[in-house]
Design goal:
The protein is of the alpha+beta class. Helix content is 27%, strand content 44%. Strands 1, 2, 3, 4, 5, 6, 7, 8, 9 and 10 form a 10-stranded antiparallel sheet that branches. A hairpin with a 5-residue loop joins β3 and β4.
Length: 209
């Protein structure tokens, strides 16, 4: 049943939005140096820096979290994202054998409040309710045919707003369409890659609490 649903989902949303992603962390003391190096390489600011809030949902078994940790395919992450300008988006991040992509649909504040209160139903994961709240600051850059984002001041909260902890280092993410190779970026940014997930890290802090 899971595979048949997934085939329908892929067919519906196959819109050339698959992407390749690489992540790494750097020491906070080197952040200014890193951004200076970006500009020296010819990078441009893509969007103004902004604060982001994400409310993640999962089922009662935390199956999305477990699938992420185990690397199971296909899998999803479902969240409500607020870009601090009064706009809200219901987003689904999908990882499959075909690649990774994201769907994003703007919703009204009333719908956000409804999901926050009672959750939603997902065809793969069933009844899902809010479990984790994440706040951070993001900067956006364009470098060649790639997008570079810097996430800093990442803070985790339970969905009842109980503080769970924070990340001590900024997270850098390199994104490109699936047709692009990241080998060139490996040369331009010789940092050890890491498997980083705000959702997984936050849930681990939540479960420890």
């Amino acid at each position: 049943r899971k595979n048949s649903h997934w085939k329908r989902f892929i067919y519906k949303f196959f819109i050339m939005s698959y992407r390749t992603e690489e992540k790494f962390t750097i020491n906070s003391s080197r952040l200014i140096e890193f951004k200076d190096s970006l500009f020296l390489k010819g990078a441009k600011i893509l969007f103004p820096k902004r604060k982001i809030e994400s409310l993640y949902l999962d089922n009662s078994n935390y199956q999305m979290y477990r699938d992420s940790i185990e690397g199971s395919l296909p899998r999803k992450k479902i969240r409500i994202r607020n870009y601090k300008d009064g706009t809200y988006f219901q987003e689904v991040k999908i990882s499959s054998t075909e690649g990774r992509f994201k769907t994003s649909n703007q919703i009204k504040e009333e719908r956000k409040s409804e999901i926050k209160k009672i959750g939603l139903f997902d065809d793969m994961y069933g009844a899902c309710k809010p479990v984790l709240f994440v706040q951070y600051e993001r900067e956006y850059f364009k470098f060649k045919d790639f997008r570079v984002t810097i996430d800093n001041e990442i803070r985790y909260f339970s969905h009842q707003n109980k503080f769970l902890g924070l990340e001590t280092h900024p997270v850098i993410e390199l994104k490109a369409s699936v047709e692009k190779s990241l080998n060139e970026l490996m040369i331009d940014f010789p940092y050890p890659r890491t498997r980083f997930s705000k959702y997984s890290n936050g849930i681990e802090k939540l479960l420890i609490k």
